[in-house]
């Protein structure tokens, strides 16, 4: 199946939920359907960006759009500013300047944002160790992921997983149902 690497945790959760009939499984499958719909809409928007149909989007700048695609398709790759610039056929300075003007962030900050999003997805949807999540997201260690994660989300990856993970949620929470106080 051809899909974005960031969706792999969602596919893993889908397979896991489809294989069992536990309380809340239907609710989780319904929520996963929402994720896939959002991904399909995002894919349409990305294609519109690439075609230059959305005003003010970086896709009108082909090398920058290509760099964004490279980052999103391989966030764990050991990207450097020089490496990205080389991939899109530009000097480092010109690339960094055009990237910031088009995207609003530096190329390396954008890379960090994508990596943290990938890590957050794995933390929410898998039981992989923090070290395995770090490696899949492009960090050298769980310590480097933890530092970046705390800076961005204000909590450790483990705390984020505990608060956000549908794998540890109650069936009511997984279904999006607020728990009612006893006797209500």
Low-confidence stretches: 53-57, 168-184
Number of helices: 10
Gap from first CA to last CA: 46 Å
Q: Assign the CATH class.
A: Mainly Alpha
CATH architecture term: Orthogonal Bundle
How would you spell out the order of helices and strands? HHHHHHHHHH
CATH T-level fold name: Arc Repressor Mutant, subunit A
Outline:
globular
Q: The biggest beta sheet, please?
A: none
Mean pLDDT: 78
Superfamily at the CATH H level?
Homeodomain-like
Total beta-strand segments = 0
Number of individual domains: 1
Structural write-up:
- The chain contains 10 helices and no strands.
- It is an all-alpha fold and 184 residues long.
- It has one domain: Homeodomain-like (Arc Repressor Mutant, subunit A, Orthogonal Bundle), CATH 1.10.10.60.
What is the secondary structure topology, with strand pairs?
Elements: H1 8-18, H2 25-50, H3 62-73, H4 81-87, H5 92-103, H6 107-125, H7 130-137, H8 142-153, H9 157-164, H10 171-174
